[in-house]
Amino acid sequence: MCHTELTIDIAYNEFKKFFREKPFLFFGSGMSCAIDERFGMEALKNEIINRMECYSLNGESNTEWKKVKEDLVNGADIESSLDFVENPVLLEILTNITGKFIASVDYDYAIKIARGEIEWPLTRILKKIVDNLPEGDRELNVVTPNYDMLLEYSCDYIDIPYTNGFIGGVTRKMNWFAADYMLHFPVKVMYGGRMRNIFKRKKHIKLYKVHGSLNYFFFKGNIIENNSWMWNPPTFANRVMIVPGSAKYEVLQCYRQELLSKADTAIERENHFLFIGYGFNDKHLEVYIRRKLVDQKCMGLIITRDFNPRIESLIYQAENLWLICKTQEPDNAGSRIFNMKYSNWVNHPINIWDIKVFTSEIIGG
Fold first, then answer.
1. pLDDT tens, residue by residue, 155-180
2. Contacts with 66 (C-beta within 8 Å, 6 or more apart), sequence order
3. What's the rounded mean pLDDT across residues 250-264?
4. Which distant-in-sequence residues (6+ apart) come within 8 Å of 195 by Cβ?
5. β-strands 204-209, 162-163: how paired?
């Protein structure tokens, strides 16, 4: 058992050391809820209960929904309640309700972020990390299960190039090779006594939206991206959004090549992981995360408001994993910090679980 006592100074030094290397970033619904609680699962749960009253169901879909509704009304979380959903009719209805609701909230912030009226909390740390990317490795890999477009709006506002693998006109198809090519720009260099053009890649974000997105649709046998459809989708194109519940893993298999395969490969190559507002709810990604953090002892840092059993399981097994979360005392806005190499949790009066505060305290700016 370790008898070394953790202090705030030790923790701060470790956090600053962590950012000397480029991380692989995971962010979750905590980062959307930081800007509006309606992006959270509780608001979606209430929306589904209310909207389902408008639908007349029968047979298997009706039986499944009665079971789901009973669980939801009795206080169950939406993830476990939707485990009962296997009927494709009910699944499509739930996907449409989810998409329409998230899109309505997302629309408000598309306008506010574009006008500079509000800043998404993750914006500053993204800017810092991308600006400091090394010359030989000019991309930041980012994975999110979120459907909303807050990252995309924020990147546009502060001029961070990003790619999600789609390329084309109004309706875009996935082609990671071509998308990567579009990120290159010419630079004049002196070579052999003459000025020549060489091509460099822009520093950029490579974004993997592993549960789909408001602007992803299944159309003509392909997953496509179309921003003009996300507010009011046409009836001939189905949303590609994997709703909560175990059935999502079956649906994911249909879209595995587009949504998961590139993210899987990227995760396998990395050994330095940053988790912000991420609840570790995804069973598919957890296989990779646990192997990296526990078995391979990779470096990791979790910054989140809420502590949960899944995080607790990880931090007591992964020796190079740090956690910053909110204190458990209801009236205390401070933070607590943990790493299993030390004998104690350390409390901090500053709420550095808030990513804007953390960025200012640790990275600067």
1. 999 999 999 999 999 999 999 999 99
2. none
3. 74
4. 188, 189
5. parallel
Placement of tokens 């477009």 in the chain: 149
| Cα 39 to Cα 30, 232, 250, 364, distances in angstroms | 9, 18, 24, 28
Q: Kindly report the CATH number that applies to the domain delimited by 1-35+119-161+204-210+260-365.
A: 3.40.50.1220
Helix (H, G, I), strand (E, B) or coil at 215: strand
| Residue showing tokens 């959270």 | 40
Instruction: Identify the CA nearest to 151 among candidates 237, 251, 39.
Output: 39
Smallest CA-to-CA distance from 300 within 319, 281, 270, 320 is with 320
C-alpha 94/C-alpha 82 separation (Å) is 10
Task: Let me know: does 109 contact 39? Beta carbons within 8 Å.
Answer: no
Model pLDDT for residues 96-108, shown as the tens digit of each residue: 999 999 999 999 9
Report the half-sphere exposure of 264 (CA within 13 A, side-chain side). 8
pTM for this structure?
0.92
